[in-house]
Amino acid sequence: MARQKPLSLYRNIGIIAHIDAGKTTTTERVLYYTGKKHQIVDVHDTKDGKGSTTTDYLEQERKRGITIQSAAVSTEWKGHQINVIDTPGHVDFTIEVNRSLRVLDGAVVVFDGVAGVEPQTETNWRLADQYNVPRMCYVNKMDRIGANFKHAVEGIKNRLGANAVLCQVPLGSHDDFIGMADLITGQGYIWEGHDKDSKWEVIPLDQIANHPKVQAFTTAADKEWVANLAQLRDETIEKALEMDDEAFDKLLNAGDVETFLKSSDFSLELLKKCVRTGCVQGKLVPIFCGSSYRNKGVQQLLDGVVDYMPFPGENGGIGLVDEDGNVVGEQGVVDEAPARALAFKVINDQFGTLTFCRIYSGVIKKGDTLQNVTRGKKERIGRIVEVQANATKDIEEVRAGDICAFVSMKETETGDSLTDPAHPVLLERMRFPDPVISVAVEPKSRNDVDKLSTALYKMVKADPSLRMEVDKETGQTVLKGMGELHLEITIDRMRTELGVDANMGKPKVSFREAFGQSVEHTYTHKKQSGGSGQFAEVKMIFEPGEPGSGVVFSDEIVGGRVPREYIPAVEHAIMVESRQGQVAGYEVLDFKARLIDGKFHDVDSSALAFEIAGRACFREAQRMSKPKLLEPVMKLEVVTEADYLGDVIGDINRRRGSVSEQGQKGTNAFVQGFVPLAEMFGYINFLRSATSGRGTFSMIFDHYEEVPASMVAKLMEKEAK
């Protein structure tokens, strides 16, 4: 079957933002205005459990009014197929944003018009930088008290480092928000009302100031935007034309923007083409505004997606890598190539497994067999479905640029490469964060013992930011994740989706260890008990590394003092032994292990003997180095009324934290700082009582830091309880 729609008419986009910026509300409006839905459900109307938005269909999402897992929906706008992924904004679910950005061609970043740039927005922005994803910004909630478009734009430029180009500016704010001025088309859009089918009036830019609704503006800031429209449009046009040398030369020849606009060289298509070029190449970030809840601006945002977001492959394909992760080539997004797809998400429920995939090249049909290159297994494609949040529709084939789900794949996990068996290659993988918090999990009844391990395995397979292990000393099953909410919701989802009830123990922090100083140590392993013996001697230097440098093994043997075939055994010993340090049994981070000398015996030496020597050498050297215990330190932001700021700052200091910044965010005050995770359990209870329920906070892992010597014993005692 031939391609139904050219690739240039596809848009694969994600909607990303800090929690509560309005991503799900915006997605609901997108589905309504594109004809996919005939009724709008608002997020705050779902907490009774009776209704749900399209993308927040999990019971846990409805109850809490937040997005927990990314959900994909497909729709059409002006002849273009738009595949939208609505992602979570809570820090505990950053993994969902991570894996979505890996496979998307563009992202719409939503901002709360009052709060502007928030911590999770910065995290998501860095992820988009990492995956080279073009972005456009949508400043939402312009109808709220304290909405400040200028503050949001300055944050986008200064805190995110974006080369922002204003495509729209708001007309009014709060109750006066009536629409927006489009600096690209040179028109204003003024809505007649707030309801979802309200019409808008289109008027030329130079007539906006005379409109009765505009003349009724009460604040100086709203009036200033209107007064500066002509100048703002000139700046936008100039910045856009810089993206095209030929167009910019014509502007220079014209002398100024006004003259250029009246010349035959100018056209709206040329201007949009220049903005698109800059956006696709990541050199420009178009900014839009609106109020999704009040149904203003979503249609214009969709026009922006069509006009400025790249189609699949327009800003390059996906990197091909070797087994060590080094890029060795690139796969373009084309049908006429071997089939290549990346699995970016796995969902398990009582009905089976859905493996979400982005198709990068070729055509995959029902019944085809693909090679899972990551795991060296073959997978037969039984069913292919197009996913509409929690509903599916069977399809016969998928092509380059598509996002779909394969049903009941047995071997494939998140990040795996699926390719034509005749042309196996590895696609560039995703990078996942390490968990920072752990809890013991046990079944509620004896009947659930076997079911619990199966359910946990399914949850861990679906979410790479979860880890499961069995504590060797206690025999407890330990689940590790990104935060208290992450683990709590994982346990709750096992109950609702897999029918397994479990009890969750008290959260524990994932500490780390490090070498305190450089140590040179020699260890000799000798064993003689009849028959052939064991002999190996290693001389090693262990040096602390820079934060984030990882474990580095250096082979510095000369003159065959240790035969080549035994050196990998020593390296393996160091890598394995570093997972359990000598302070409290936590993983040892960031050091360099240099093998500088050794001895061997012609008969008694073996790889096993050298591995044993390497392990013992590491253990003794770490103990000798005055080892350090490291704890995860979180970046914390609290937003509350100014009256409560003193109590919040005092509490941060009591929790061994430090304040890095404080200031105003709209009508509220904010404070940012760094606090050890061990001191943050149950923080929401303090904040609610200290701020009469008005304070909100967000925190994200920032770095590991040495635990003060006086606190080590106290913390270890606390963790052991």
From TrEMBL:
SUPFAM superfamilies from the UniProt entry: EF-G C-terminal domain-like, P-loop containing nucleoside triphosphate hydrolases, Ribosomal protein S5 domain 2-like, Translation proteins
Entry keyword set: Cytoplasm, Elongation factor, GTP-binding, Nucleotide-binding, Protein biosynthesis
Location relative to the cell: Cytoplasm
Stretches assigned to the Tr-type G domain: 8-313
Xref: SMART domains: EFG_C, EFG_IV
Pfam families registered for this protein in UniProt: EFG_C, EFG_III, EFG_IV, GTP_EFTU, GTP_EFTU_D2
Function per UniProt: Catalyzes the GTP-dependent ribosomal translocation step during translation elongation. During this step, the ribosome changes from the pre-translocational (PRE) to the post-translocational (POST) state as the newly formed A-site-bound peptidyl-tRNA and P-site-bound deacylated tRNA move to the P and E sites, respectively. Catalyzes the coordinated movement of the two tRNA molecules, the mRNA and conformational changes in the ribosome.
Entries under PANTHER family matching the protein: RIBOSOME-RELEASING FACTOR 2, MITOCHONDRIAL, TRANSLATION ELONGATION FACTOR G-RELATED
HAMAP family attached to this UniProt entry: EF_G_EF_2_B (MF_00054_B)
NCBIfam families on file: EF-G (TIGR00484), PRK12740.1-5 (NF009381), small_GTP (TIGR00231)
Protein name: Elongation factor G
Gene symbol of the encoding locus: fusA
